[in-house]
Design goal:
Elements lengths: L5 H8 L2 E3 L6 E3 L9 E4 L11 H6 L4 E4 L12 E3 L3 H14 L4 E6 L4 H11 L6 E3 L9 H7 L7 E5 L8 H8 L3 E4 L7 H4 L2 H9 L10 E5 L5 H10 L3 E6 L4 E9 L2 E8 L2 E7 L4 H16 L4 H7 L11 E5 L2 E6 L5 H13 L5 E6 L8 H7 L11 E5 L3 H7 L5 E5 L2 H5 L11 E5 L7 H11 L2 H4 L3
Parallel strand pairs: 2-3, 3-4, 4-5, 6-8, 6-9, 7-8, 9-10, 10-11, 11-12, 16-20, 17-18, 17-20, 18-19
Antiparallel strand pairs: 1-5, 12-13, 13-14, 15-16
């Protein structure tokens, strides 16, 4: 089915279309481009114009460019615009304007991508669903998601992220959501904001893009909940809080055989659901998802049944069994709130020695040393048997731990991974967590590689 014709795309962007083409998708990456895609030549680390010829050779229907590259024929199928990123934003606005379904936008310091995926799975069977791929949540990811959206979409799920002040509101205004959900507010990107209150106001700016009489789904019982509520009220939104309290609340969460059996009350309706994970923070976000879907007009009981099909994505807390150990791979991101949740997940698992392998938490600002040290007093830490760590910031946690719990410390994750035989043993339950830039995923890679080796599998 055609997504963009030359006339549609030119009208949306104000550009000049040449050639007779029809785009069935939109791509920014020649490595994953599919025949029929409109290739968008963005400038990032590399200039996308250098890859236009390759994109066309791979079957792209046309390319969105600001100039005709030297290695591309002058009569090639193109959409020529003054600025490629601005044109992509215009395509996103046009894609949003022509759909008549409901748009749900999700942001938060922790759990945006997993919550977006939860919502997508929960909506299965309730119409045509369009959701952001991977973590496409920035200045090009949001318009790209909307530009890819079929016009007959019933529910669209957009993820919105930020690194600096002033990023969320413009993206929300492009998406124009009917429902906006904030998963939580935590000490992430503090270097750019100075205090968690600034982060809360930035997250709350997602409500500035809400459609008239839109719905705001906010976490209850945070120190900054009132800031979020004020932001929602300022945008004229209908507010529903979720959490242990609120109009949407988690009534019961019982761990059983690696899953959580949950009961929630969503606006007065009881919904039972099961999650294939042991992380109670996922259960809390699932309640927020059900509240958001109810606000968007979905059948909330059917959505609850579908939640059992959702699994945490790789690197975001999924539990997998390697030879002799259970691994919680949560190596994609970290801040004190998400690390506390990861430790709680580890503490809840039964049957073996609990081992945490931790990398530095980054972008925490001036108090980063104290924040790392304070994790030694996290309530779940009492249930952890051994903590290995890597990085100069994690050295402060290492030093704060009691000697019985203090494992290895190394300057880098690579050095820690090289001592794998000293980190874990068969029967262990292992959490690996840290900011992506800490490269603690190196330990995950080493664990997976070693799991294929007989010496690891038979180790006593």
């Amino acid at each position: 089915m055609s997504l963009w014709t030359p006339n549609d795309a030119a009208a949306a962007t104000g550009g000049r279309a040449q050639g007779d083409w029809s785009a069935t998708g939109v791509s920014i990456d020649t490595r994953t481009i599919r025949p029929g895609d409109l290739f968008v030549a963005l400038k990032d680390v590399r200039d996308g114009h250098d890859f236009v010829a390759q994109a066309l050779d791979k079957g792209a229907s046309a390319a969105l460019v600001s100039r005709v590259p030297d290695d591309v024929a002058s009569d090639a199928p193109l959409l020529v615009v003054p600025d490629v990123l601005a044109a992509l934003e215009s395509l996103g606005r046009a894609g949003r304007a022509r759909m008549s379904g409901k748009v749900i936008a999700i942001t938060g310091s922790v759990g945006k991508t997993s919550t977006k995926d939860m919502a997508r799975v929960a909506l299965t069977g309730q119409g045509r669903i369009h959701a952001a791929e991977a973590s496409y949540n920035n200045h090009w990811g949001v318009p790209l998601t909307l530009a890819r959206m079929p016009r007959d979409t019933d529910f669209a799920i957009v993820e919105i992220g930020m690194n600096h002040p002033g990023e969320i509101a413009p993206l929300s205004r492009i998406a124009r959501p009917h429902v906006a959900m904030i998963t939580t507010v935590a000490a992430a990107h503090l270097e750019a904001f100075g205090a968690i209150e600034g982060i809360a106001r930035e997250k709350g700016s997602i409500f500035e893009g809400l459609e008239p009489v839109g719905h705001a789904i906010i976490p209850e019982d945070l120190p900054v909940t009132q800031i979020l509520r004020d932001c929602a009220d300022g945008s004229g939104a209908l507010v529903m809080g979720f959490g242990r309290d609120g109009a949407a609340r988690l009534v019961q969460a019982k761990a059983q055989d690696g899953a959580i059996m949950c009961r929630a009350r969503i606006g007065g309706e009881t919904v039972d659901f099961t999650l294939q994970t042991t992380g109670t923070h996922f259960a809390m976000n699932a309640v927020g998802v059900l509240a958001a879907l109810a606000a968007a007009g979905a059948n909330v009981k059917d959505a609850g049944k579908r939640l059992g099909d959702w699994m945490p994505p790789a690197g975001r807390g999924a539990v997998e069994v390697l030879a002799g150990i259970r691994l919680i791979d949560d190596a994609y991101n970290a801040n004190p709130t998400s690390l506390s949740a990861g430790l709680a997940t580890l503490a809840a698992l039964q049957g073996g020695r609990r081992v945490a392998i931790l990398g530095d938490m980054l972008e925490l600002g001036a108090d980063e040393i104290a924040m790392h040290r304070a994790m030694a007093d996290d309530p779940a830490m009492a249930q952890v048997d051994l903590v290995h760590s890597a990085g100069p910031r994690m050295r402060h946690l290492h030093d704060a731990l009691p000697s019985a719990r203090r494992g290895l410390w190394a300057e880098t994750a690579g050095e820690l991974a090289a001592r794998l035989d000293e980190l874990v043993a068969p029967g262990d339950i292992v959490l690996v967590k840290g900011s992506k830039s800490s490269k603690i995923s190196t330990v995950v890679d080493a664990l997976r590689k070693s799991a294929q080796m007989p010496a690891f599998q038979t180790k006593e």
